[in-house]
Amino acid sequence: MRIGVLALQGAFAEHLAVLARLGVDGFEIRERADLNGGIDGLILPGGESTVMGRLLRETGLFGPLKEFIQRGLPVFGTCAGMILLARRIENDPVVHFGTMDITVRRNAYGRQLGSFHTAEEFHGIGRIPMTFIRAPYITEVEDGVRVLATVDGNKVAAECGKTLVTSFHPELTEDLRVHRYFLGKIR
Ligand code: GLN
User: Fold this and answer.
1) How far is the CA of 83 from the centre of ligand 1 (A)?
2) What is the rounded distance in angstroms from the CA atom of residue 121 to the CA atom of residue 92?
3) CB distance 134 to ligand 1 below 6 Å
4) Mean pLDDT, the chain, integer
5) Which of 65, 151, 156, 157 has the fewest CB neighbours in a 10 Å radius?
6) Atom from ligand 1 closest to the CA of residue 46
7) If DSSP codes are grouped into helix, strand and coil, which group holds residue 68?
8) Per-residue burial over 81-120, b = 16 or more CB atoms within 10 Å of its CB, e = otherwise
């Protein structure tokens, strides 16, 4: 199993470290040629969605990755990665991949004081630690989207088909269960 991690910007190294701990073959995606070796799953990391969106287009990765996702490639978006996948961004006119039928609000906890840790139930996994960094949350979900976790009434994790998104950063905790859950979508 080969999992590609978008490595244009942001917290991609941490995702690769988690994959290594799980004994899974992860590789960096920086340019189109990186897609030539085959890909079984894709991780879109946290970072800055506007920057990643721009770099995706500049590198020519945007088109091929969108096509892979539309064809059903399992994809896991964390934080900015979730914003890249959302069909609508409440406070930003831009749409990136737009393949998941959710509406998100960027920097939903405020820009400066928006970073915090907590622990909450994640559907089917149990209570997990959650690290939020200037995170978005989901304000609306359409039919077919399953909400997997909420914090203070706000939706912070969801899935639809082979797409999984979290507002928080599981790759910044020692808990590997959310990544394992994603890998379960591939096997
Ligand atoms: N605030 C960032 C954005 O809007 C997301 C933050 C993150 O990925 N940690 O793109």
Assistant:
1) 8
2) 29
3) yes
4) 97
5) 151
6) 8
7) helix
8) bbbbbbbbbeebeeebbebbbbebbbebbeeeeeeeeeee
Whole-angstrom Cα distance, residue 179 to residue 162? 13
Q: Which atom of ligand 1 is nearest to the CA of 50?
A: 10
Q: What are phi and psi of 78, to 5 degrees?
A: -110, 130
Q: In the numeric block, which tokens belong to residue 78?
A: 């964390």
pLDDT tens digit string along 73-113?
999 999 999 999 999 999 999 999 999 999 999 999 986 66
Q: From the CA of 147, how far away is ligand 1's center (Å)?
A: 20
Protein residue whose Cα sits closest to atom 8 of ligand 1: 46
Domains assigned to the chain: 2-184 (3.40.50.880)
pLDDT of residue 112: 66
